[in-house]
Amino acid sequence: MSSKSMPSTRSGMETVLRFGHAIKQRLRAKDLIQSNPERL
Questions:
Q1: Distance (Å, whole) CA 24 – CA 4
Q2: How far is the C-alpha of 13 from the C-alpha of 17, rounded, in Å?
Q3: Residues of 6-24 as b/e, b for ≥16 C-beta within 10 angstroms?
Q4: In the chain, N or C: fewer CB atoms in 10 Å?
Q5: Residue 12, SS3?
Q6: 3-36 pLDDT tens trace
Q7: How far apart are CA 31 and CA 28, in angstroms?
Q8: CA-CA distance, 32 to 40, in Å (whole number)?
Q9: How far apart are CA 37 and CA 40, in angstroms?
Q10: In 3-state terms, what secondary structure has residue 3?
Q11: Measured between alpha carbons, how far is residue 38 from residues 22, 33, 35 in Å?
């Protein structure tokens, strides 16, 4: 696998998007826990 065949920017973008999605899910879970902690 040579780095020239695949642009590093695309893999970087995918990593950033995946990281952002994980942060969004974590924030959403935190909001749910704060809104109704008795569920846990």
A1: 32
A2: 6
A3: eeeeeeeeeeeeeeeeeee
A4: N
A5: helix
A6: 565 567 888 889 999 999 999 999 999 988 888 7
A7: 5
A8: 10
A9: 6
A10: coil
A11: 24, 8, 9
Question: d(Cα 17, Cα 7) in Å, to the nearest integer?
Answer: 16
Residue 22 identity (one-letter amino acid): A
> What six digits make up the tokens of 37?
């902690």
Q: Looking at the chain, how many residues does it have?
A: 40
Tokens of 12: 């970087």
**CA–CA separation, 26 and 5 (whole Å):** 34
pLDDT reported for residue 33:
82
